Amino acid sequence: MKEKLAAFERTLKIMDELREKCPWDRKQTIHTLRKLTIEETYELCDAILEDDYEGVKEEVGDILLHMVFYAKIAEERNAFDIGDALNDLCDKLIKRHPHIYGDVQVQNEEDVKRNWEKIKLQEGGKKSVLGGVPKGLPAMIKAYRMQDKTSQVGFEWENKDQVWEKVKEEEEELLEAVKSGEQDKIEEEFGDLMFSLINYARFLDIDPETALEKTNKKFKHRFEYIEKHATKELDDMSLEEMDALWNEAKG
Question: Which of 39, 89, 149, 183 is the most buried (most CB within 10 A)?
Fold first, then answer.
């Protein structure tokens, strides 16, 4: 523990020095850092998908630096400091884990999640279960989080077969919309189908964002194989020729 605390203290000291002496660091604001933080978060996600623990370690450090940076800027504005943020975090964790720090009994992780959502709803006068879902989340992740949150208060299908029936229903409605040729309706029904598929993934204990990203990586690998092994320009190849190389890449 002492070594960890010393490492964190060293980080804070370096942050102070950079903010004072480095022209680039001195110029940064919470707004200029925002897009860089998003980039670092995606780099962490990439490392996680690769099970690259060295990469995870590096990106955890980079993201931690950003958190320290935000706190330093806030401290300069007399808004809060890193200690305030960490103490608020600790208080929140204790409050939201009454089965550890109180006398609440839970049977499983679903009980923990339900308690978490109920406590969150009581905090700060929040009026909606969905109030804590960030507006800026990517649509797929947002859909998953909304479905998960509303399930904690009982707004949920009973089993995955019911969810799959909903998927098929939405598929039929999309096909009907396609026949109509109404682009707005097609877009709406396509969104409904995707929302239902995301819900089905949740019932299968699959993270749809992760599943899609793995498919993206697979597609990238196979198409790059085509590019590497093509005997002529891709524009001059037939679909059948490219498909043959695609099947080779699958092997």
Answer: 149
